[in-house]
Design a protein that fits this description.
There is one protein chain. The chain is mainly β. It has one domain (8-77): Roll (SH3 type barrels). Helix content is 0%, strand content 38%. The protein contains no helices and five strands. The chain has strands at 8-11, 23-30, 37-43, 49-56, 60-62. The protein has a five-stranded antiparallel β-sheet with strand order 4-3-2-1-5, with no helix packed on it. The chain is globular, with a radius of gyration of 12 Å. The chain starts with 7 loop residues before the first strand and ends in a 16-residue tail after the last strand.
Length: 78
Amino acid sequence: MALEMFKMVTLQEDEYKLRRGDVATIVERHPASDEDGYSLEVFNAIGETIAVVTVAESQIKLLTANQVLHARLLEEAV
């Protein structure tokens, strides 16, 4: 299933100094025969880009209306 560009997603695994549940925005799709990949842009709380990462579709989920965003310090992700 191809996810739409610029949709917000949550990470499903700890990786790249990021944690499961961190929010990112889809900025590019990488079609593949087995599982699509996506480039994600991750922002800090004031809207600055802190990372651009590439993950498999199984490593992300779209945000839903019943989720609440949460702030944490990036240093805690090490």
